[in-house]
Write a structure and sequence with these properties.
It is a single chain. The two termini are 12 Å apart. A seven-stranded mixed β-sheet has the order 3-2-1-4-5-7-6, sandwiched between helices. Helix 6 links the parallel strand 4 and strand 5. The protein is built from seven helices and seven strands. By secondary structure, it is α/β, with parallel strands linked by helices. The radius of gyration is 16 Å and the shape is globular. Helices cover 37% and strands 21% of the residues. The structure holds S-adenosylmethionine (SAM). S-adenosylmethionine binds next to helix 4 and strand 2.
């Protein structure tokens, strides 16, 4: 979808449909049985789904995939948007768990478990060179979050999305966004020079669309 056409009302409607629909009920039951204490909550998963459904990314990376609550909603968004050749790389450094184990079988096909530290993932140039969607959900320390934003932003294609969970924990997300602006004398952002087209924070999730 061309980023300029983002319709906020439609996005909100998709969030509400997910929140009250059968897939959410199924995932809440799975979370109870198979999830971890770190699994993403209902509101943030609904928005994550709506963003994927709207922007239809093919190649996605999630850091901090854990047992796969957020991954399930990304995969469901790809599926419902008709993305048939998608891939979701789930980076996770805790090898005591089975990465993505709570993802429903019918959605699991495009999931690529990627064990290891995200820093090694970048250093060794693992995973795709160009991506359409990035979700940060690993360690929520300012320096680490900012580092992920900076590196994965470079891999994002124009029109791609950078999404961060837990943007309430420090100012790394807003600090990163502020670096992507160019303003005119009146404070209006300059199209063609500002590196994003949209950004927002809803609940604990922040997102920005690359120009
Ligand atoms: C909040 S949990 C993620 C929850 C998951 N996204 C979900 O919704 O089910 C954070 C995860 O990040 C992992 N993690 C933390 N730092 C990491 C790093 N540097 N590289 C890879 N994984 C990391 C942790 O082991 C933990 O499983």
């Amino acid at each position: 979808m061309p980023a300029q056409e983002l319709n906020w009302f439609t996005l909100m409607q998709t969030v509400m449909e997910m929140k009250t629909g059968p897939f959410m009920a199924q995932m809440l039951e799975r979370k109870e049985r198979l999830g971890s204490k770190s699994s993403m909550g209902q509101m943030d998963c609904s928005l994550l789904y709506a963003l994927v459904r709207t922007f239809r990314p093919r190649i996605a990376v999630e850091t901090g995939a854990n047992v796969g609550m957020a991954s399930s909603f990304i995969l469901k968004g790809m599926h419902d948007a008709g993305v048939t050749d998608g891939k979701l790389y789930g980076v996770e450094y805790d090898t005591t768990m089975q990465i993505g184990s709570m993802i429903p079988d019918e959605l699991r096909g495009p999931f690529v478990p990627s064990p290891g530290n995200v820093r090694g993932f970048m250093r060794e140039q693992l995973g795709p060179g160009a991506i359409d969607f990035f979700l940060h959900d690993s360690m929520h320390r300012y320096k680490h979050q900012y580092w992920e934003f900076k590196h994965f932003w470079k891999r994002l294609r124009p029109g791609g999305l950078l999404v961060s969970h837990d943007v309430n924990m420090n100012a790394s997300f807003v600090d990163f966004i502020s670096k992507t602006y160019t303003h005119d004398w009146g404070g209006v952002s300059v199209e063609g020079k500002t590196q994003h087209t949209h950004w927002a924070r809803w609940g604990n999730l922040g997102f920005m669309v690359k120009a």
